[in-house]
Amino acid sequence: MARKILRFNKYKKAGGNGIYDRGVLSITLAEWDEFYDEIGRFRGYRDYVWRGQCRGYPEWELKARFDRAPKYKNEDERDKVRDEHYAAFRKAVRGRRGANPPELKDDDLWALGQHNSLATPLLDWTESPFVAAYFAFVEEAERNDDKLSKRVVYALNRDIKRWFRRVNGSNEKEYFIEFPEIKAHENARFLAQAGVLTKALKGQDVKRRVQKSYNESNHRNRIGLAEILIPESQRRKCLMDLNQMNINHASLFPDIYGSAIFCNLKLEIDK
Question: Rounded distance, CA 247 to CA 50, Å?
């Protein structure tokens, strides 16, 4: 099935001022209000998923938490450490998932752990650019953090899922970026956040993967990944706007933790 992917020439024709390099569109905004215009240029391209980070490159790569500060030295060791970590979590949650819980497959259990602070090989995304913006801005910067001058919202097109490599010259395929289908029946946070997860082969960086895949001449016009940089100074304005849309911890974390953080943040942005 063909994926709907925005091309750079159409983006420019719509008034966009971003910089394009090997499948990656970089956009720097002067203020929060410009975010609405940029999102409008992606209207109709439903195959994009979104992610917010309080830090961008080079400090935070587009890697899963398990791979961002690795406890392994090479790919073989990574697989061993990952499998041991998974087994430890599966054992640790026994008796803690309620009465008669359904059996969870590997990615479903990883996803459950992901939304309960487990370091996993999965990376969080959302169907909503505004939910992504919330996660980009919700964490308050430390007073002495001079490096945190911009927050970043990413948009990744699902077209990346078709890229693969052959295993040792055979017909077996290894896909570089997968989008696991998650059964989120007991993962209320995942549902509330319109969550999507990606799993990168060998924990590789998503941005570098996109640049490698779209460097071929017949793909150079396609926007596989967009990164939107928004000034840190716009944090309060962003969170106030999103709160009016009912995008806050109370709606995205439908539990006592979410209610508590919602009230704490309300004290901060209402002052």
Answer: 15
Q: How far apart are CA 165 and CA 185, in angstroms?
A: 33
CA–CA distance, 133 with 130 (Å, rounded to integer): 5
- What does DSSP assign to residue 7? B
Q: pLDDT of 150-207, one tens digit each?
A: 999 999 999 999 888 777 777 788 889 999 998 866 788 899 999 999 999 999 999 9
Which residues contact residue 253 at a Cβ distance below 8 angstroms, ignoring those fewer than 6 apart? Answer: 189, 192, 261
Joined together, the tokens standing for residue 186 give 């007991």
pLDDT tens for each residue of 211-234:
988 876 567 789 999 999 999 999
Helix segments in 3-137, DSSP class H: 8-13, 34-40, 65-68, 75-92, 106-114, 129-137
Q: Where are the domains of the chain?
A: 8-67+122-269
Pairing of strands 195-200, 122-126: antiparallel
Q: Is the CB of residue 85 less than 8 Å from the CB of residue 65?
A: no
- Those residues whose C-beta lies under 8 Å from the C-beta of residue 208, and which sit 6 or more positions away, are 61
Return the closest-CA partner of residue 24 out of 221, 162, 230, 231: 221
Contact 197, 125 (CB under 8 A): yes
DSSP three-state, residue 83: helix
Confidence (pLDDT) at 162:
87
SS3 state at 200: strand
CA separation, residue 150 to residues 25, 140, 234 (Å): 16, 12, 9
Q: What is the DSSP string of 136-155?
A: HHSSPPPTT-TT--EEEEEE
* Bridge-based pairing state of the strands 24-28 and 225-231: parallel
C-alpha distances out from residue 183 to 20, 161, 186, 223, Å = 36, 20, 8, 29
- The H or E element containing residue 262 is helix 256-269
